[in-house]
Structures are given as C-alpha cells and as structure tokens.
Amino acid sequence: MARSADKKDDWCTPPKLWKFGLDVFGVEQYALDPAANRRATVPAIESCYGPEDAAGQCGLSCDWFSLAGHGPIWLNHPWGADRRGTSKSEIWIGKAVMEARRGCRIIALSPVKIETGWWQDLIATADGIAFIRHRPKFVNPDTGTTAQTGWSAAALSLWSPDRLDRDRFHREAGARNWWSIVGRWRR
Question: Which terminus of the chain has a lower count of CB atoms within 10 Å, N or C?
Fold first, then answer.
C-alpha cells in the first residue's frame, strides 16, 4: 500500500498490478493477501488486515505457509516508516524473504530503493524483478479515485520455487513493456 503526502498508507493496489500476478500464477485469485486493507479489491481467499484485525490475523505475525500452502500470495505492504522511523518495507520484505525460504510463492509490490539494505536483500533473494514503467497510480480507498502518491518508482518481485512461475513472470513483464531481470544471480 503506497503512502501519500497526506500520510495515508492504505491506498489500494491498481488492478492492473495485481492482475499481473494472477497472470503469472495462472489463477483467478490469490490464496493470501497478508497486507490487505478492508476495501482492497485484490481477490484473495485469505486476507490479513494488520494488528487491528479482530480475528488477530496480522500479516507480519501469521504463518503465510499455513494460510496459503503452495498457493500464490500477493503482497502490497504499507510503504513509509513506523512510529520509530523503521522502514515498513524493510519489515515486510524481510517477512516475505523468510516465507519464501519456506516455499511460499509470492509477488510483492514495493518502492525501488536500491540504496537500502532491505532492497539489496530483495535483489539477493528474489527469482525475478519487474520494473514498472511510470509510477503507479494507486486507488484512494475513500473516494475510489486514482492518483500518484508521490513515492519512488515501483517494482514487482517474485519468489517462487516453480520454474513455470518464473518463466511466466518474465514473459508477462515483457508483454507489458516492463523491464524484468532474473534474480538470485546464479542462473
């Protein structure tokens, strides 16, 4: 979820971005959206809404593999910093990397911040990264209108043990005229 000049970080994902993930995974819905908001339009069987969730399903503390199994996971985490100034991207990407090591199939939308440790960890572990042309226009959950939220460029990252997912990721990125790179630097 992007953060804007008005300090909101609950902007919804533009459908064309989450639809990219559905095309990559060859499904009609995700098994899990661990960083959803109540008005998200991402089709997911399971959603986690954060610490305020009455069911106690905070995406940072729940077990993604238990909720999704080998099903696909969409992650558009809150961007910005928490009250202590810690990058929310660092926290969420760290969780995604940990869950990917357990076998989860994840596509994550995040800001491109190549100078940060968390971005370098993402680069070192992801199976693919697609750089989105133009800054995405996120959906305001209060009005339904779209706007650029003022953040940096954005990228979609893939973690998947499935070669077919990796091949489709690069093919779908190319079809959208996005620049994609193969990750993990060992292929």
Answer: C
